[in-house]
Design goal:
Radius of gyration: 28 Å
Number of helices: 16
Strand content: 15-25%
CATH topology of the largest domain: Rossmann fold
Distance between the termini: 110 Å
CATH superfamily of the largest domain: P-loop containing nucleotide triphosphate hydrolases
Number of domains: 2
Shape: elongated
Structural class: alpha/beta
CATH class of the largest domain: Alpha Beta
């Protein structure tokens, strides 16, 4: 029997992750945040919920097998197993022969009066490494109730999709014994190009036809398919697991000081912020997924819907509104993305106009012009005799859309960026719906400054913004965010001038004095 051990909770986000019943649950946090121990504890708790049979002594015996996988056995030994042995001691049935196995029994319930055992768990944790054999070879024949994937961002992209067919297979020859099979994922914040980022934040796993989706939802029941939990950064007020780190917050201060030459590392490992894989700093450094991304953000119909449009062969549109406090609420994003989500497909003006009209009708039930205001890049409104075709693009797009397109208040990048920066710096000043994954990825680092070579051969960022697949959707949001009372005055630092001001004259002159 395993001895009872009390583990200190890392914090509320780790606890919510541990208690989640989602089929794939993901915890993203800085180094030292306790996410690995939370994942291992979650696997043990899941094991204790599996079905069981009553033995000859009247004891309900539950059985479970939980898998743990990493890229190599040295990584398992150096990190994952060290955390595991804080939960179950090494000398209790652990075998160091690859794949490593740990078999143990755990008393789950006793009679409060007699002390007799009423429920017991017979459990096996199996630790595997992928190594150089590939995912299929490493996982072949695995029959487990759940798999814990540690450091998922450095594992092969096909690992988690393959594991969907491995979990829920250990049932003691009775499928009814399987309860809530899971893939439990933990990692540091990945860069925005990483496959693990797409899984955690784009929820990109499988693309099902409607009939198959119904079958999947029926199987899931009240469980979510993918659920992501983002812990606070190590320097934030709500940083988790500080009480279990030597020196508390000094643990992170030391890392920041030692890694000043690697700002991307500090952002990911300490501040828990995604970074762009490409060279160049993100344009919107204050974007915080945990603070700014909201599931199911809805349009408050008391306020006009504003749709920003960036024109051209890779056109994009972003709907948002400003609430009574003039705060930005971004509700989605429309771009002609390829199925892989990594490139934009060219789109004509008429086609994009029809796409946007359908999008507005289906998502917001927009049918009348007075419900919204469409604003576009001022370049669309320059004379038609210019050598470029932006003016013609607008006319064709406007006719297909069926709504008038207004000129955005400015095309100056400094002002357009400032309106987003100002919103993100204010408490609750900026929120974006979780479904706007392409725009979220832009804010997380895809929308970035250009790279430039210095005389020493180093690569640094320029103040010009790189032309990437994220530039167009970010520009479209900026055009929309410029709308609103006092917005331009605020970003320019000018005094607000009330609109429709009532003018009063204080005089003793009687305007009726000369009337008979």
């Amino acid at each position: 029997m395993t001895e009872a051990r009390v583990l200190n909770s890392p914090g509320p986000i780790a606890d919510a992750f541990r208690q989640s019943r989602a089929f794939i649950k993901i915890c993203v946090g800085p180094v030292g945040s306790g996410k690995t121990i939370a994942a291992l504890a979650s696997g043990l708790e899941l094991a204790s919920r599996q079905g069981g049979r009553v033995d000859s002594k009247g004891v309900l015996r539950r059985k479970a097998r939980i898998g743990v996988i990493r890229e190599s056995y040295p990584s398992l030994e150096a990190t994952t197993l060290k955390s595991w042995f804080n939960i179950v001691p090494r000398d209790k049935g652990f075998s160091m022969r690859a794949p490593y196995t740990h078999k143990f029994s755990k008393i789950l319930k006793t009679d409060p009066e007699t002390g007799a055992i009423l429920e017991r768990l017979d459990c096996e944790f199996e630790f595997r490494a992928i190594g150089d054999q590939g995912v299929e070879a490493a996982c072949r024949g695995w029959e487990v109730n759940a798999v814990i994937v540690d450091e998922a961002d450095i594992q092969p992209p096909d690992l988690i999709p393959f594991l969907t067919g491995r979990v829920g297979r250990f049932s003691d020859l009775d499928p009814k014994m399987v309860i809530d099979p899971q893939i439990i994922v933990v990692m540091n914040m990945p860069d925005v190009e990483n496959h693990a980022y797409r899984l955690a934040f784009d929820k990109a796993l499988i693309d099902l036809d409607p009939e198959a989706d119904v079958i999947l939802q029926d199987w899931l029941g009240d469980r979510e398919l993918i659920q992501t939990f983002v812990q606070p950064g190590g320097m934030e007020a709500g940083a988790e697991n500080l009480h279990n780190l030597e020196g508390g917050r000094a643990y992170y201060v030391r890392q920041i000081a030692a890694n000043k030459h690697k700002p991307g590392y500090v952002d990911r490992m300490v501040h828990n912020k995604p970074v762009a894989l490409m060279h160049g700093l993100p344009v919107n450094p204050d974007f915080d997924h945990r603070l700014h991304v909201v599931e199911g953000l809805k349009w408050d119909r008391r306020f006009k819907l504003i749709v920003g449009v960036d024109q051209g062969l890779f056109a994009a549109a972003v709907p948002l509104y400003r609430n009574e406090l003039n705060q930005v609420r971004t509700l989605g994003a429309l771009a002609n993305l390829a199925p892989n989500g990594r490139e934009l497909l060219k789109v004509g003006a008429a086609q994009f106009g029809r796409m946007l009209r359908k999008y507005l009708l289906e998502k917001f039930s927009i049918t009348h012009a007075d419900q919204l205001r469409v604003v576009g890049d001022p370049a669309m409104f320059l004379s038609s005799d210019r050598p470029d075709d932006d003016y013609d693009w607008r006319e064709v797009f406007e006719n297909a859309l069926g709504f008038k397109v207004h000129r955005a208040k400015t095309n100056k990048a400094s002002l357009r960026n400032e309106v987003i920066w100002k919103a993100m710096k204010e408490l609750h000043g900026y929120q974006i719906d979780a479904g706007a994954t392409h725009l979220i990825k832009a804010h997380a680092g895809g929308y970035r400054y250009s790279k430039a070579e210095t005389s020493t051969g180093e690569t640094r960022g320029e103040l010009s913004i790189a032309d990437t697949i994220f530039t167009h959707v970010a520009d479209a949001e900026q055009y929309a965010a410029l709308e609103g009372q006092y917005t331009m005055a605020d970003v320019r630092g000018r005094e607000r001038k009330p609109q429709n001001q009532i003018i009063r004259f204080n005089t003793n002159y009687d305007v009726f004095s000369n009337l008979d």
